[in-house]
Amino acid sequence: NQPSILLGTIVDKVFAGDRNSFAHILPVLLVIAGMILGVELLTMLRKLIVERVSTNVESKEFAGATAHILSLRLDSLGAERIGALNVRLHRSIEGVTKLLKVVFLDFLPTVAVACVGLFLAAQKSFSAACIMVVVMLIGIAVTAVQIATQKGIRIDLFRDKEDLSGNMSELLSGTEYVRASGMTKVEIGRAKSLSVRLRDREFVHHTW
After folding, report:
1. Of 26, 126, 148, 153, which sees the most CB atoms within 10 A?
2. How far is CA 127 from the centre of its chain?
3. What CA–CA distance (Å, rounded) separates 165 from 85?
4. Distance of CA 27 to the CA centre of its chain
5. Rounded to whole angstroms, how far apart are CA atoms 157 and 154?
6. What does pTM read for this prediction?
7. Among 145, 163, 146, 37, which Cα is nearest to 91's?
8. How far does CA 62 lie from the centroid of its chain?
9. pLDDT 10s digits, 23-48
10. Per-residue pLDDT tens for 86-131?
């Protein structure tokens, strides 16, 4: 925020008729450019660190999941569709990495900017800061209610995606059997019904 404040000060002086020469303004402009460059470098460093941690976590999770699967009893996977299980495993690992990125790349920077904004607003006008706090709390409450009410819909949506992706994975590995047994039309009909169910659930999810 400091570069924006300095820029605002320069603009105020220009409109106020202050006839400072360019030599007087140049050091301030250089400081602003240095601050902007520093912010960009810190942002790049934060992204590199988060991406490095996310990739390390992803590789460790895959290795741990592989070790866990190899240690399971063979009959424990009999009731699971291999394709759906594969999709569920990848989705779970991707969910962990996405959570890390959302927290450290979006959530925490937004909270930091909001805290600085509230602090600056409180120095200028305490009532304005209170209004900002109320608006933020209302936004958090609305988001929490939306997440709570859509939890069941999202779970059903994930299960339908697992069924559809699992069915496709199993078809790719058993294409010759499907053709030889004359089940092509049956499998196409099942894929259509799964896609229609997924479409309807996605419509409900985006509507509410």
Report:
1. 153
2. 33
3. 10
4. 40
5. 5
6. 0.62
7. 163
8. 20
9. 666 776 777 778 788 888 988 998 89
10. 777 877 888 888 888 888 888 888 888 888 888 878 888 888 888 8
